[in-house]
Amino acid sequence: MDFLSSLATVTIHWGALLFVFLLFVAAVSVVVMYWVDTHQTSHTIRRNYPVIGRFRYIFEHMGEFFRQYFFAMDREERPFDRAERSWAYRAAKNVDSTIAFGSTRSLETPGDIFFLNCAFPTLEEDAAQPKEICIGEYTAKKPYRTRSVVNISGMSFGALSKPAVQALSRGARKAGIWMNTGEGGLSPYHLEGGCDIVFQIGTAKYGVRNNEGHLDDTKLASLAEHQNVRMFEIKMSQGAKPGKGGMLPGAKVTEEIAHTRGIPVGEDSISPNGHVDIKSIDDLLNMVHHVRQVTSKPVGFKMVVGDLTFFETLCELIHKKGIEYCPDFITIDSSDGGTGAAPQPLMDYVGMHLRESLPTVVNIVTSYGLRRYIKIIASGKLIVPGKAAWALSAGADFVVTARGFLFSLGCIQALQCNKNTCPTGITTHNPDLQQGLVAAEKSERVANYAAELFHGIGMIAHSCGVKEPRELNRSHVRIIENQSRSQLFSHANPLPNVRPEYINMTALKEEAISKEERLQ
């Protein structure tokens, strides 16, 4: 008993001393901050309201976190609201993704869409698996055949951490989908999962560049020898930063990343805002032809749509140059696409939204009689089944998403992708933060998310009365005009017929037949 009494006395004594000491430190800190604030000239608030004014910056920093968890409603947040993120999390964890009582999505917002259910929906026993699509069927010596509908969009090693790339690669293999490398080059971690890979050639030619930063055919051919590398995508522009190259802070450029990209260690990696060797549509088609000649595999390009005359001129030139110069696919990115780092003026104000650009490009390619040769890939916030199903109904052959798969890895939308401080270990190269991301565990969630996204698209398709997702078309969708009226998508934006002058397309058909015969 005496021991406990002595211990209590000592604890109280030292506790009191510690409290007095902390009070003294706090008082000195307040005095120092007061002196600093009243004598500095950079911040008006701190100068006029010394010490107290500092709370503004604390609240400003913490505000985005408080809004996310306490104040924002389920459908209010940007860039992804809580309802969409929650669906992605549940899908990745393979838990119940149903909801109760009623939808929290506004069902009467002008411009939004809804699908038309059929009186006789497709029964489960009548449902069909997606048909196989062949990319590069008429042009490439080694075309790519796949049944996948949903795939992983471009995210670079460097922007993403090692375990994140490993998890995506393994998960893509389990799901039977492809993974785009992004412009950061091909790392061993892309390959170790064994999934199909689309290699992206960015403006800086990372991974296939020579010492001057130009395309190195030897490195390109060497990459094409990997059986898993199925296609090559030339990145012309990106939705979140059209007209701006990739930006990777020097803090993220480790020795391994520098080796993969072919750049100096620890220096900011900023890509040119355009290809130095592609300055016209003719240059682009020549590059498509050249890369395909070197690799023997399908080649296409990615861009966020701006000037629509680009596609008119592109299609006209393909007819003049021949099918050998035709891109095998075009990836249409949306102006609301994502990235790790981009200037806000470009992210907020430049480029066309996928809702308008996708059907427009499909229409142009169709009217020139090139739809069978050019596959269309849609990208841009397509993380939930409804949005992905809309893209297919608008005419896309494939849907790709990056941020949807980031959510499957555990992304919490902390908006710190550009700071190397990602709390989930996805976009940081800090080993302490990376240890929380276990690739083996997260790869299962990647596969689950892909499967659930496809399943959700399938449910919409079956409700509309078609057997598989790619049978969705514009007649299955209505666009809301006001609270009491909507318009059929196929009436608002009908798919055009092939222009009379391009119906026969003798030269293209002869070349296509000749190519088919050579491949057989």
State the strand order across the main sheet: 4-13-12-11-10-7-6-5
CATH architecture of the largest domain: Alpha-Beta Barrel
Overall outline: globular
What class do helices, strands and sheet pairing give? alpha/beta
Number of helices: 18
Low-confidence stretches: none
Helix content class: 40-55%
N- to C-terminal separation?
95 Å
CATH superfamily of the largest domain: Aldolase class I
Main sheet? Answer: 8 strands, parallel
Structural notes for this entry:
The structure is a single chain. The protein has 520 residues and is of the alpha/beta class. The chain folds into two domains: 1-71, no CATH class; 124-475 and 483-503, Aldolase class I (TIM Barrel). Helices cover 42% and strands 12% of the residues. It contains 18 helices and 15 strands. The protein has helices spanning 2-39, 44-48, 54-71, 82-93, 162-175, 188-192, 217-224, 255-261, 281-295, 309-321, 344-349, 354-367, 385-394, 403-409, 431-434, 439-463, 489-492, 506-519, and strands at residues 113-115, 133-135, 144-146, 150-152, 178-180, 196-201, 229-235, 247-248, 269-270, 299-304, 329-333, 375-379, 398-401, 477-482, 485-488. The strands form four sheets. Strands 4-13-12-11-10-7-6-5 form an eight-stranded parallel β-sheet. Strands 1-14-15 form a three-stranded antiparallel β-sheet. Strands 2-3 form a two-stranded antiparallel sheet. It is globular and about 100 Å long. The model has no long low-confidence stretch (mean pLDDT 88). Keywords: Membrane, Transmembrane, Transmembrane helix. Residues 134-466 form the Glutamate synthase domain.
